[in-house]
Amino acid sequence: MVIFGPAIDVRPLFPRERQAMLDLLRALSPAEWAMPTVCPGWDVHDVVGHVLNDHMRRLSGSRDGYGGARFADDETLPAYLARTNEEFVRASRQLSPQLMIELLDHLGPRLDAVWAAQDLHGTADLNVSWAATDIDSPAWLDIGRDYTEFWVHQQQVRDAVSVPGAVEPDLMAPVLDIFARGLPHALRMHDRPEGSMAHLEVLGPAGGRWGVVRQDARWRMTRPLGEPAAHVSMDQDTFWRLATRGITVEQARQRSTASGDAELTAAITALLAVVA
């Protein structure tokens, strides 16, 4: 759909990202599996358990059509996800690191096959709520969201154990590109004259430039051409951490440069690409 910009196909990258994660996990010591991560209350073992949950939940839902856990009365989506994620992580603490590695190695190719069978331009199995809440997401954005999820959790493990990696531009650039598709939603509360534009520039080997335009009473992705009403620039490390709240909005603003419409630049530097 035009609002989200051109499609991006991340499916060929899943095996490479997963191999980097498995290589990392196989090299960890018992002490490193217990290292705390940026995820509150979760150590490395817990984050890996969550990634395993992501694989199982998507295979159960997208491949097998199984609904899974039900919403509690009056439970919001963020509350539901927080509850069910925590339930699985607690259960996964009974699993050995070796078993979790073997399960990820086994389940990953099966999830790859599910994505390979998808029509990228069809309707997503799960809407990407941080990109839009009033229209259906395309499948490519849903698949891309899963890729960003796996990549980000790998980086959280790497941060915890001080092992850099998986930041080659061809692996990282799609993460930033998918996150940037949250720009229209980030600006949704700000009405502006038809044709108004805002630009985001992410600096670094994996970075890029993205634009949004006000058209037909909503913001839409567009090519970043002309003179925008607002412009924000930040480095690639700042952007992915902002989008996943690995750093605060204030920290991201301190690391960014902004010009033009202050309300629009503030909204861009509050972009969120996870459910929270």
Automatic annotation (TrEMBL):
<dbReference type="InterPro" id="IPR034660">
    <property type="entry name" value="DinB/YfiT-like"/>
</dbReference>
<feature type="domain" description="Mycothiol-dependent maleylpyruvate isomerase metal-binding">
    <location>
        <begin position="16"/>
        <end position="157"/>
    </location>
</feature>
<dbReference type="InterPro" id="IPR017517">
    <property type="entry name" value="Maleyloyr_isom"/>
</dbReference>
<dbReference type="Pfam" id="PF11716">
    <property type="entry name" value="MDMPI_N"/>
</dbReference>
<protein>
    <submittedName>
        <fullName>Uncharacterized protein (TIGR03083 family)</fullName>
    </submittedName>
</protein>
<dbReference type="GO" id="GO:0046872">
    <property type="term" value="F:metal ion binding"/>
</dbReference>
<dbReference type="InterPro" id="IPR024344">
    <property type="entry name" value="MDMPI_metal-binding"/>
</dbReference>
